[in-house]
Amino acid sequence: MSLERPIVFGNWKMNGLREDGLALARAVATAPGKGTLGIFPPATILREVILAVEGSNVIVGAQNAHSEDFGAFTGSISAPMIKDVGGTAVLLGHSECRHGLGEADADVWGKAEASARADLLTVICIGETDDERTAGRRDAVLRRQIDGSMPRGSDVSKLVVAYEPVWAIGTGKTPSESDIVSAHAFVRERLDAIFGRESRIPILYGGSVKAENAAAILALEGVDGVLVGGASLDAESFVRIFQAGQ
Ligand SMILES: O=C(CO)COP(=O)(O)O
């Protein structure tokens, strides 16, 4: 499976009631352009969104998955459940889960193994906090997260990495273009070392991507696409981001 660039994924987070969510999904499904579009609605409307975009090439996935397939894990959903309703992808290791829910690298790894068993496209999110960045530890953190949360031995064509600096998420701040390029180059080097140069795992940038800055970000060397939060909730701005990469 090879994803056509630009890859533009929308993480709806805890947003989207049925009416607005389905209207948004339908608008995304009719967006013209080349590349790969994906949306990650809340689990409550996952099935309905999948049906709403049926017949389009839009990928629909969930925002997290448990490392076990089934069991006594109140409040969780598993990779086979996502697959069962027709989902084909999952976001894992988002900073709101790493920092908000205390997910460690090893937890993300276990979830990624489960996603691979269910044959889902697995988007592993990584990124440094503001303190880590100011302390000059960005690359050390990225290395630790890549080494610690990416499963080995699964189908590399089903893996995507999203570099999302924590301090850029939902803040309107973005790193400088040269910082994005250098972070992506570092991630690429590490992925090559682990998975081989031929793996070509796509690397997305995420954090305050908007219609206004998307063209510049998508044009940067080493950026295969973007993972969009807030701006993915508005059909017009999400479609403009996709079109900025054409
Ligand atoms: O967390 C994000 C996507 O996963 C980014 O969120 P924002 O685009 O709202 O900054």
UniProtKB/TrEMBL annotation:
Function noted in UniProt: Involved in the gluconeogenesis. Catalyzes stereospecifically the conversion of dihydroxyacetone phosphate (DHAP) to D-glyceraldehyde-3-phosphate (G3P).
Keyword set, alphabetical order: Cytoplasm, Gluconeogenesis, Glycolysis, Isomerase
Domain of life of the source: Bacteria
Record-listed E.C. numbers: 5.3.1.1
Protein name: Triosephosphate isomerase
Any single GO CC term annotated in Swiss-Prot or TrEMBL for this entry: cytosol
Record-linked SUPFAM superfamilies: Triosephosphate isomerase (TIM)
Gene3D superfamilies hit by this protein: Aldolase class I (3.20.20.70)
Keyword Isomerase: yes
Top EC class of this enzyme: isomerase
Cell compartment(s), UniProt: Cytoplasm
MF terms (GO), sorted A to Z: triose-phosphate isomerase activity
Record field: catalytic activity: D-glyceraldehyde 3-phosphate = dihydroxyacetone phosphate; L-erythrulose 1-phosphate = D-erythrulose 4-phosphate
InterPro entries given in the database record: Aldolase_TIM (IPR013785), TIM_sf (IPR035990), TrioseP_Isoase_bac/euk (IPR022896), Triosephosphate_isomerase (IPR000652), Triosephosphate_isomerase_AS (IPR020861)
Annotated residues for binding of substrate: 11-13, 170, 208, 229-230
Chief location category: cytoplasm
Complexes and interactors: Homodimer.
UniProt lineage: Bacteria, Pseudomonadati, Pseudomonadota, Alphaproteobacteria, Geminicoccales
Pathway(s) this gene product operates in, as recorded in its UniProt entry: Carbohydrate degradation; glycolysis; D-glyceraldehyde 3-phosphate from glycerone phosphate: step 1/1; Carbohydrate biosynthesis; gluconeogenesis; Carbohydrate metabolism; erythritol degradation
The keyword Lyase is annotated on this UniProt entry: no
Family: Belongs to the triosephosphate isomerase family.
Active site, renumbered: 94, 164
A GO biological process held by the record: glycolytic process
